[in-house]
Amino acid sequence: GAGLLRFGGSGSGGVVNVIDGRMPDSLTDDGRDGAVRMGVSSVNAGREVAGSLDQQLGDNFVLHLSGTGRATENYAVGDETIENSQSDSTSFTVGGSYIGENLTIGGSYQDFETGYGIPGGHGHGHEDEDHEDEDHEDEDHDEEEHGEEEEEENVTIELKQKRFDFNASLNMDGYFDRINVFAGLADYQHIEFEGPGEVGTIFNNEGYEVRAEAVSNSGDGRGAAYGVQLTHRDFEAIGEEAFVPPTTTDSLGVYTFQEIEMGDIHLEGAARYERTDVEETAARNTRSFDAFSISAGADKHLSDALRIGGTVFRTERAPSSEELFSNGPHLATSQFEQGDATLDVETATGVEAALRHREDGHFVTLNLFYTDYNDYIFERETGGEEDGLPIYQYTSEDASFTGFELQGGKDLFSTGRFDISADGLVEYVRAETDGGNLPRIPPLSVLAGLDFDTANQTYRAEVEYTAEAGDLAEFEEPTESYTLVNIFADWRFIDAQSVTLSASVMNIFDEEAQQHTSFLKESVPLPGR
């Protein structure tokens, strides 16, 4: 809806709100809340452990501590092992909040590290002419050396991020009811290794974001928010394989959001202006973009069970530094990426319509959408090759997206022990430009499930079908249809709340499936059973 413009102008399809608990927003019930999770998985010899603690200190302060650790080996698909798909990660978070009657202030620090392989992502083959001219009589020895050389070219990633976050909310008397401030500072680095100890590219990304808004909620059903958002990003790629020059991006946005309730009708609207400067620091080449976005929506309760609504919008997005200035091999996706420094603002004009019905143990939700883009920015495969990698060119073309999402569920019946219900979801999108189909667009998907619930147990079986990807862009490889069958079980103990034992079997029939949205779909299928 129109509220997405409070967070940015580039999310024409919406925004996702992630609540991670690092800064508690309420006091604990009895002074302490905690959770521990442990798990293993068979498809990749995976193991994980996570824990969190919220400890109330005094009447108004809550301390948060959490940590996670996870490791996997190469995962399997049928009898095949997907080489270089291993991973390990750890994170630690400390945070806390002061929660007063009119003032809430929270802060957190998170340290996250992970290392993982990129299956299908390979480094360059560096030719050694003297070695190639040698006459090897021992063919077995030659094949062994060649195998070792290929193994050394597997791309792996070592990633580190340190992040500070700050939130504050002040309740007020007067025209504005509340002032909200959100701020984040991140120091991010990841290194692409072409082989053990062989650094290909080092990516450094440092930045901060601050958003402040004043919120007003009057007693006559009117509400409003006025805000300003500031972002800064320093990005650099270092190394012989660096494909993006050092860049600095600064953005300043201002916005307003308005809403009103008139009986059964809810109206809302928003507008946002954003100025973005992207500078290629070495060459002192700066591109500046002005983006203006506007959105309006309405919904009406036709009855207690039926609600209809819709949104119209026109949003603008400035191109990123990668889209503008890339020029080199990106080993993690096995591409040679080329930017276009002449790219302009991407404009999306669209409409969404929604119908929701919920009554007597069943619900249906239908969302329809159409978005028309001027200068839609995407990566297009050219058919050329550079450094042994296919060339992908950032380009812009007019494009359109048309699609729907249909979701529903119904309580079927109850036995002496189980309450049985069913649900389903269908998603489809058609995306094309004036010149043909857009690449990597997900095909039709259907999900259907059955749930069996008791007070302390839940069982679920589901079938997920994804159709063949047939509307292909030039040079794009097709993917076949697949059906995944999954089952889940939860057993709850100790007053049905404190302890849950969960088990699941995913992809029961060990189906080989490729995600059409992936750059590496030909070499990296989804995990097997």
List the helices and strands and how they pair.
Elements: E1 32-41, E2 46-57, E3 61-72, E4 76-77, E5 80-81, E6 87-99, E7 103-122, H1 129-133, H2 139-152, E8 154-171, E9 178-195, E10 198-217, E11 222-238, E12 247-262, E13 265-280, E14 285-301, E15 306-317, H3 321-325, E16 327-330, E17 335-338, E18 346-359, E19 362-386, E20 389-414, E21 419-433, E22 436-437, E23 445-453, E24 457-466, E25 482-493, H4 494-497, E26 499-505
Parallel strand pairs: 17-20
Antiparallel strand pairs: 1-2, 2-3, 3-6, 4-5, 6-7, 7-8, 8-9, 9-10, 10-11, 11-12, 12-13, 13-14, 14-15, 15-18, 16-17, 18-19, 19-20, 20-21, 21-22, 21-23, 23-24, 24-25, 25-26
* Count of beta strands: 26
> Helical content, roughly?
under 10%
The coarse overall form would be globular
Give the helix/strand class. Answer: mainly beta
Largest sheet: 24 strands, mixed
Mean pLDDT equals 91
Low-pLDDT windows of residues = 125-152
Strand percent estimate: over 45%
Report on this model:
The protein is built from four helices and 26 strands. The protein is mainly β. The strands form two sheets. It has a 24-stranded mixed beta sheet that branches. Strand 4 and strand 5 (80-81) form a beta hairpin.
Structure described in brief:
The protein is mainly beta.
For the structure shown, list the relevant keywords.
5% helix; 24-stranded mixed β-sheet; 529 residues; globular; 4 helices; 63% strand; mainly beta
